[in-house]
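Hello again,

I reread your note about wanting to compare the complex against the isolated chains. To keep things tidy I'm splitting this into two emails, and this first one only covers the full assembly. Below are the input lines as submitted, including protein chains and any nucleic acid or small-molecule components. They are followed by the predicted structure of everything together. The single-chain runs will come separately.
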Amino acid sequence: MASLPSVAVPGTIKLDLDFKKSSQTSLSTHKNSSIFNAKTDPRCLDFREALSMIEEGSKVETAFYVPILQECIDRNSVSEAQIIHTHIIKTGSYEDSFLTTFLVNVYAKCGEMGYARKVFENFPQRNIVTWTTLMTGYVYNSMPELAIKVFQEMLESGVYPTNYTIGAVISACSFMSSIRFGKQIHGYIIKYKLDCDTSTGNALCSFYSKCGKFGAAVKAFRRIKEKNVISWTTAISACGDNGRANMGLKLFVEMLSEDAGPNDFTLTSILSLCCLLHAVGFGEQVHSFSIKLGFEPNILIRTSFMYLYLKCGRIDESRRLFDGIEDISLVTWNAMIAGYAQMTDHAKDSLMAHHSGTEALNIFLRLMRSNMKPDLYTFSSVLTVCSSLIALEQGEQVHAQTIKTGFLSDVVVGSSLVNMYNKCGSIERATKAFVEMPTRTLISWTSMITGFSQHGRTRQALDLFEDMRLAGVRPNKITFVGVLSACSHAGKVDEAMRYFEMMKKQYGIKPMMDHYSCLIDMYVRLGRLKEAFELIEKMDIEPNEFVWSLLIAGCRSLKNMELGFYAAERLLELKPKDTEAYALLLNMYLAEGRWNDVSRVRKLMREEGRGKLMDWSSINIKDKVYSFKPDGRSHHQSAEIYALLEDLLEKAKSLGYVSLRCLEMDDEDVVKEKTVSSTVHHSEKLAVAFGLLNVSSGAPIRVIKSISMCRDCHSIIKFISELTGREIIIRDSRRLHQFNNGHCSCGDFSNLL
DNA sequence: CGCTCATAAT
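Full-complex prediction:
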């Protein structure tokens, strides 16, 4: 199991505090209703019956329309709304501003802003609520610019906004991420002294958070004099959205100490923070706390707990919760699939990761067999699982399901498909999926650019980047990681620098470590160690473990041990969290015969509580997963596997293969003796040989490896791909290696162990 | 005005 990030949990929750449940909790939504006569109250009638009463034509009370119009919104039925609309006009209820405003709302919620606008235009008695409803409608239908325009019209016509209006305008600003306009609105709010009003303050806090201005969001929150549950919940989610999950937990504790009772929204927000932090201990406290407050029956909260436990590897507890839910909704299924998928991400060096991936696929199958219809969340999660398992066949089946259910055209599902095909090594199918997408987002473009880059297709990656800019999509920092890594692959220093400058100047993106890593990787690949080192010294960020590892890998290949040893000391000072960093150092010191350093690193590893490197590989053949450990002989085909490897090694030697000294991964005690002399069969070699024996001829071999490949295996597999004419794809913990005719898509100079 | 499940990386 991978070590989880350590979390400084802010104190513990005092469980003896006895909160009253907030009145706003949606657990107590039971509204008092029975003043109406059952015969004329449409809530007691069938929707059709109520409608036909209207079609008969007699005038009815305003209150009669309300539930039917509400029903129109819930059913998203425009035609029924039009029937009621006609009736309202015919009977003269049109002058009722409440009803007319409601009609604007109905059309807006049904996505018919044209109709909504018409109702508004034809209604001279429009009041502030009508204006606000129209604006809210535009925001609801993703037209924030029009909402702002309406706001300006309104001010010009001399109508003064209420805090509801301001709320709508601010959501429009959030939608556009328009800091400039939002600040103008903020100025307006201060001018009219609306600032401390609770709902306005909440909206402002949410706005600044969505624009990434966390500091301003917190300030807005702090200025609210009378904070309600929504204020606290908004501030807590703001922490999560801005990478400050820990502070969110602190706010929660503060909230409790101020006697503010959380509701179900607050709890789900807190749980998503716990997920981000893997703070399962904190989550457990919240769990018992929430039971005490009576949130137990709430299925969404139960689902959130289930998801948290699963994501943190507490499979049993999670399953108990899952099994306890009688009426499993799609959200619960999805959370279960996503939970297993996320576990895959965080348990890379364990076989458990693989099992959780296959378990996620099983859950997906169960879902499909039940009568539930999957949605975009189901598909994106399950496609992620296929990616991490490089399960191309299963991925194709899911692809077929997206077509069958009509989700193929969804942009998130489409992006997930592109990503899945890329990760499975099929750049052709990824390209096809990308081209066929009806709409694309930043993420779709970035996925495809990165895909080209990973497959060593630099020109296509850069061309696509230009296409993306021409299409008017603004690249973000991750897009630039893709672009710079593409340049790095091809050794295009000038272009890399040009894009790096473009990123800073034209797009105002502050370089982060990942961008520097690409540049350093580029210099190292070109053998320009000095420039790589100078860049490290020059950066305005503290170099991290990864950067030093890159340099060390370069120094080893180019035999610049002086710089290599220097970099090693810097790396050791950081007390790396990543076990692979220690393995890299051990490999280097072993190769140089520096036994003192070997034991020094070993000691530090023990002190830091870093375990051994777990090397395992797995291969997926026809719905079955086969796993291999290094030098494993327990497999029933072991004899054939070893014979094949021996044969291939001999042939490779005649083609010029020279074995490189390498660390034995799984067994510390024999390292000294064996590394220098005999060949070590790391797990991927066994998996590849097994694949050669069992995968139908001509088909690519796809292997997943728990840790980085070592230089020796990387070299021999290049020869194997040449000797057998097979395409071999190995996804290790760092990147995708696609071997074809003696070449690898990583361009060879990756920081192998 | 707040919420759970989702897609991109060296």
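For quick reference: The longest helix of chain A spans residues 351-369.

B.
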